Amino acid sequence: MPMNIFRFTGDMCHVLSILILLRRLHVAKNAEGISLRTQELFVLVSLSRYTDLLTTFYSYYNSIMKIFYITSVSFTIYLIRRREPICSTYDRQQDNFPHWKFLVAPSAAVAAVIFLIEYNTRWYGWESPTFHFFDLQEILWTFSIVLESVAILPQLSLLRRYRSVENLTANYVFCMGTYRFLYIFNWVYRAYNEPGYRHHFLVYIGGVLQSLFYVEFFYHYIKCKMSGKEVRYGDEGDIEYHDLNVEELRTEENSSPLIGNSDSGNLRMRGTQNENDGEESRLLVV
User: Fold this and answer.
1) Which end of the chain has the lower number of beta carbons within 10 A, N or C?
2) Angle value at C-alpha 163, between 277 and 179, nearest 5 degrees
3) Over pLDDT 70: what percentage of the chain?
4) What does the DSSP 8-state code read for residue 31?
5) Whether the predicted pLDDT of 139 surpasses 60
6) Minimum mean pLDDT among 3-17, 80-94, 115-129, 167-181: which range?
7) How far apart are CA 255 and CA 30, in angstroms?
8) Up-side HSE of residue 70: CA atoms within 13 Å toward CB?
9) Distance CA 237, CA 71 (A)
10) Where do runs of H (alpha helix) occur along the chain?
């Protein structure tokens, strides 16, 4: 695929969003407001779409970007699932969008139906409808396009459960949405400037659908940033967490996931409050 300014800028926004998320996990040492389920969907999208890494070489840029997407998102999943103290702060009860049932399974069904329609049309083109390995790649590619269009839903659903959105988390979602919007301009540019450009209407539909999911978040993000306030997304949130400069607050004395007085047995997980805490102590709970 030829390079243009919209594609390159979109790719860089995608890379930046991943780096922001990794930075947020590294600095805050917690997974509050981060949807593991969305990360699982993103890595499934990458693994399904980039099977051509095994069969076709396009360019070093193309291969490096694909490998980066797979490894970086996989590492993010590892941090949330296994790395302490991050994994201890991951709230499965809040991140409860039924992604396998309502996103993965329907996406697989849609991909199968689309393939069967295309497969059967080969009879009318007087082609042999023999199944090949490249047909499997086509099914997986179609599945990845459909799934990517809805993969952000668990993350947006989780953010609605909070009254405010932590700054780096908001920046991460904003960069992801910007990446998708820029790819719409990339398609328009290629359609008008690339001879013999092949239109993929499924890609168009999926890209526009995914971009629409970001519109409401963009509205709240830009509105809050322009007014200098913390980002608030949705009205149904019942959980409050603050955008603290964790890097300044965290020291050797408070870096443990457990805080309190060990002699009195008054230990508790970081991020929870005690009725005896003073106002200053409550502000330092991270």
Assistant:
1) N
2) 125
3) 76
4) -
5) yes
6) 115-129
7) 11
8) 14
9) 33
10) 5-28, 36-49, 60-82, 86-89, 99, 105-124, 133-148, 153-159, 167-193, 201-227, 246-249, 279-283
How many Å apart are CA 111 and CA 48, to the nearest integer?
12
Picking from 104, 205, 112, the residue whose alpha carbon sits closest to that of residue 147 is 104
Render the burial of 201-212: b for 16+ CB within 10 Å, e for the rest.
ebbeebbeebbe
- B/e letters for 108-122, b = 16+ CB within 10 Å, e = fewer, are bebbeebbeeeeeee
Long-range Cβ pairs for the range 78-83 (8 Å, 24+)? 79/22, 79/25, 79/31, 80/25, 80/31, 80/34, 80/36, 80/39, 81/36
Tens of pLDDT along 23-54?
999 999 999 999 999 999 999 999 999 999 99
Cα separation of 79 and 87, whole Å? Answer: 7
CB atoms within 10 A of CB 66: 16
What is the spatial distance between Cα 43 and Cα 36, in angstroms, rounded to a whole number?
Answer: 11
User: Among positive and negative, which fits the CA dihedral 112, 118, 124, 127?
Assistant: negative
CA 205 to chain centre: 19
